[in-house]
Structure formats: structure tokens, C-alpha cells
Specification:
11% of the residues lie in helices and 38% in strands.
Length: 255
Amino acid sequence: MTRLAILLVAASSFAACHRTSSVAEPGAQAATVPQCSAGHAYCGARQKCIDATTCCTKGDCALEKARCHRAAQCVEGVCLYEAPACDANDRSCVDGKCIDGLLRFDARLVTPEAPYSLRAFQDGAVNITATLTNTSRNEIAVSSVVTGNISVSSIKTGTTHLRPTVRRIVHADSALGFQAASLRRLAPGAFLEFAVKTLSLEAQDETSEYIADYAPTGPGRYDIRLQYYYFGPDMSQTGVFHGVALSNAVSVVLH
């Protein structure tokens, strides 16, 4: 092996181990992977340094939560999960399995029609009453606040699904603490109602809290589905529902 070949192999090995640079084939322009500051890592898919605790691609999204969802996508460093695999509002997904007769999620539009604007889903023009009902034979516990627990599963017009933009947020205190303190027990047959006054809803992924904003593409009919998912601790309670419950679809007409 020539001295030049040995140097090229050594340089390539160093780059692979340290993720600082790569050596191109002879005659090609060398590509450089930027050095990132402490707590950051280079994301090739986004061509920049990102917070090391956030996702770069969908492969970074936790399989535990994805077990109850068809797929995950990484949007601006946040893991967003597509519709739960149990596609009915009276079937819950727990540990990757669809279970009948546990928690039913009913959604009802307060405003079946609303004026069209790009912020129609953000400014309170669309209001939904969400109801969780314990359909099991045992007492269960659910968190009684919208924040962080109820989020948009999907919004579509025709066959086109809207893709959200994501805003990462930081609370002075963790929203999980607020959600956990709001755990409420439901006897069999008991229900809990939520007033969902905006579709820009707070949620969590594995590392952060965020808001997903949806913008309509024009006047017309939009089909909306919500989901309930409590991400927090049990707070010494038994029967805490940690599965995913999907609502029925509700349709709003923007004109």
C-alpha cells in the first residue's frame, strides 16, 4: 500500500470515529461535517447542529410510544406520531394492543361552521367538546386537563392530511407536574368532559414540550380527530390509563 493510501485510510477512520470530517475519493472535493457546541450534535438530514436531546430523523423517535401508532415523523426536532393503530373511538391502545371496553373518547363540534382564515384552527374559531368515558368494569384514573393530554391526531381535507408546524416551548415548571396533579378517578360508566377551545394544543414527546400548529389550505370541509395520551407518573394511584385513546372524527366547514 502506498504512503498516500495509508494516509487516506487513517483519515477516513478518524472521521468515522469522531464525526468531525470525512475524506472524499481522490479527485473529489472533501466534505466537512461541522463541529457542534456542547450539548449539540450534527444532523445530516437537516444540515445543521441540533440539540442532542431532540430527534434528527424518525429513527430517533421512541418505539415505546410508536407501538400504539402507525408511524412517527421528526418535525423540527419533535417526534410526531401518526394516528393510533386502533382506529375506533371505543378501542384503546395499550402496550401495542387494541383493547375493547376500556376508555371511549367522544368528540363533538361546538362550532360546525366557522369563517375561513389561516389561523382558524388556532384562534378559537373551532371549538370541540371532548368526553372520556370509562367503559371498563374497573375504576381507572385519567388526567383531567387538556394541556399535554389531548392533542390533534389528524386534520385532513378530502384525502390530504395537513402537516403541522411545531413550536418548542419551555415552562417555568414542568407541564407533567400539572398533569399528574390533575389525575382523577373514574368509576365504571363515569365520564369527564374537556372544553377544547383551540387546536394549537400542547403536547410532549420524549424530550420536550411543544405546540403543533395547523393551518387550513382554503375554504372547505376539514375532518378532525383528537387523541388522549397521558405521559406522566402514576402519583401512587392505581389504574392510571397510560394507553392512547382516539376520538371519532368531527367535520367543520370553513367558509
